[in-house]
Amino acid sequence: MQKTFLLILIFLFSIGQSISQNSTEELIQKLENTSDKKKQLEILDDITKILVKKNSKKKLTYLNKYVFLAKELKLYDAAAQKSRSIIQHYTNQGKLDSTKYIVDKMLTDKDKFTKKITEAHLLLKRASYFFNTDQYEKAILDYNTSGDIFFKEKDTLYTADARYFAGQVYNEIDDFLNAVKYYEKAYQLYDIVGDNDYKNIVISELSALYSKNGFHDKSLIERKKNLKNAKKGRNYKFIGFAYGDLAKSYSENKNYELMNRYIDSTTFCLDSMKYKSEKNLVKLFINNLRIDYSLEKKDVKSAEIYLKKCKEIARKTSAQNYFLNNLLPYEAKIFFLKNQYEKAETVLKKVLSLKENEGKDKLIKLAEKEIAEVYAAKNKYKKAFTHLGAYLKLDEKSNNLVKNNTFLYYQSQFETQRKDNEILKQETAIKLLEKDKELVASKRKMFLVIFISIILALASILYFVWKRGKLKRKALAKKLAKNKKSLEEFTNQLLEKRRVQELLTKEIERLNEEIGEINSSEDIQNLTSVKILTNEDWYTFKEKFINVYPSFFREIKQKGYSLTKAEERLLALEKLFLDTNQIASMLAISNDSVTKSRSRLRKKINAPKGISILNYLEAS
Fold this sequence. Notes:
Elements: H1 2-32, H2 37-54, H3 59-72, H4 76-92, H5 96-107, H6 116-132, H7 136-152, H8 156-172, H9 176-193, H10 196-212, H11 216-233, H12 236-252, H13 256-270, H14 276-296, H15 300-314, H16 320-337, H17 341-352, H18 361-377, H19 381-496, H20 502-528, H21 535-548, H22 552-558, H23 565-575, H24 580-587, H25 591-604, H26 613-619
Helix pairs in contact: 1-2, 2-3, 2-24, 3-4, 4-5, 5-6, 6-7, 7-8, 8-9, 9-10, 10-11, 10-12, 11-12, 12-13, 12-14, 13-14, 14-15, 14-16, 15-16, 16-17, 16-18, 17-18, 18-19, 19-20, 24-25
């Protein structure tokens, strides 16, 4: 049944290839018959997508045509985006100089980009080139510039990546202060986007950096922070390593009681781990620590037991050579303590043969010291002196680095504290100035209130006076009217009397004149009173994929790996031996996104460099 389905699938694929070929030829013919340049660009876009997916030899020709035409149409962002496929082609072929040439060529048009993020992605590509060719200063410059652009464009995840990679460069060149600075920036940004796995990775790097430079207390603080974060995320792999790192910190501080306590905590944590590969890595870490403890106590028998366990576990991993090489100094030390000097010498010579490998400096220094002890025990003092000199030279180099970094760190702490004090003084002065301003404003308000109160009081007094005068005038007018009426009555009485003496007549005349004056007074009084890529496609693909590889996803899940849908898609396409360009085309994303996704998956599953992720998963 499966064979029949496979034949059908191959048949359909061949038909699809034929259709695709016909489709490409039709598009090319259509391109030749089209004079409108915008239409030509659209057709070229379709052609390049098909050719990149097929990894056709013609793809570079049409990709370059697209880039040239896009520039002619002044669509520089589109040209830069399409150029990433050209860059990826040269990268896959190991032609790093060609990749840099393309990036630099595209960056000459950076002032014409409508999106600054286009420049940032190109700078990330170039920074990677500089890092891989040991041009660290240039790598740092490009990582910082791209990170700044991503930050301004509010792309927090890519900003975090740029800061983290810059931290890696600083770590590589032993720039302790900047490595710490950029790791901390990356941690804050990963915390914002909620990427807990990368947060734990950054803290692990940071704690190892502190430990390497003699800041064991700082390393201990970071490792406790790492444990807290791991517990919060309930990721038992990270919890296990966090316990192990804490045990290592207490070992460095010679606090063996707490060291053993955290080793026991790590052991208990193993029961909660679902995946065998994770358990093996944590077990290996634990037994390494137990060897350290046993050798410190000169307990050779226990050290041998734990070394044997470490070798058994290391052979079960996909990177067994790496782990076995790191166990060689332990094996040599045990032989030395058992007075088996020849065996110890043989093992240590094997370690010294690893000099050309990266990341072996600490291992080489330890081997130089131990082989000097071996030759001294065999009375070969000339050789002992030579290797002791090599050890002292390496030790002096690392000690000077630690001393220098320690000085720089505390100097930066002092300067930071001093700046904080200056800022505090300035803030205090500003607060006092603000208080003075508030006091002046308060005085002004009080003066205004008093002034308004006085005005109101004066108005009230004036109103009272005016009201009282009005009442008096009203009473006077009333009294005057009453008097007038009384006078009129009296006059009438006089007029009725026909026989009145002349004197009385004169008096009446005088009274009439008075009445005229009163009327005149009343008139005056009256005058004065006037006032004024769809989910359905993936499910169909997955169904067909499972029919071909029925146990693929089930076996990975049984091995303890928990993959997201995006990671399943990536692995499925890797299983079909598709290259980066083809994967990017199928998922309708950029080649850079595919590379980033692959890098994240590698770190997530702890796959060593140089080993295919797919091979690592299938072999673990």
